[in-house]
Amino acid sequence: MKVVSIACAPLDNRCHIVWDNKDTGKEKTAVVIDPSMAFEQVMELAEKEGLKIELIVDTHGHHDHMFNNFEIKQATGAQLCIHELDQYRLEKNSQETRPWLPRPPTYQKEDFTFKDGDTLKAGKVELKVIHTPGHTEGSSCFILNEANEEGKRVLFTGDTLFKGTFGRTDFPGGNEKQMWQSLKLLSEMKEDYAILPGHGESTNLDWEKPWMEKLVKEKLG
Description:
Layout: E1 2-8, E2 13-19, E3 28-33, H1 39-49, E4 51-57, H2 63-66, H3 69-76, E5 79-83, H4 88-93, E6 112-114, E7 119-122, E8 125-131, E9 140-144, E10 154-158, E11 161-162, E12 165-166, H5 176-187, E13 194-197, E14 203-204, H6 205-220
Parallel strand pairs: 3-4, 4-5, 5-6, 10-13
Antiparallel strand pairs: 1-2, 2-3, 7-8, 8-9, 9-10, 11-12, 13-14
């Protein structure tokens, strides 16, 4: 699988675009994870690579991750999905702004919601949903079904897990105890994964496990 990550100002968000690099079709089916503020870059990449964006996936419902949901859906006709517990945030966010945004996100209703254990599909791209609440009620991670071009399995972690740290729990809908449980779940995964978070640099799960295991033991016993 081909995975391209786009860095977005002003919060160093990461928008991820995934497609099958072995696809020989005229248009390659692609998935966008967390559009963020990357509309122009996503559309430029789609034109350059011959991508047909069929699915937009929000890791959670914060303004900076779903800001360009509407624009990408309008331009591509892609379906939009979000965890069922964060669905309410799509309309709520359209009525609010943030100091670092030029305007509130334009409201875009989801086409469907997902839950833990679901598999999201678009062409040959499949994402297995892991519900990891703590940052928000519906925060989720996604396992890509096939290895990337470097031969690594990929785990998209949104704002649950970053390089060397984890997402904040002090926003509305955040929950510290749920975050510890989510980190415990990720730390117990047997396979190593390339971690592509919602902000900042990529990392790998084996590198993150020691501090997660130590933290979880301190918090949960």
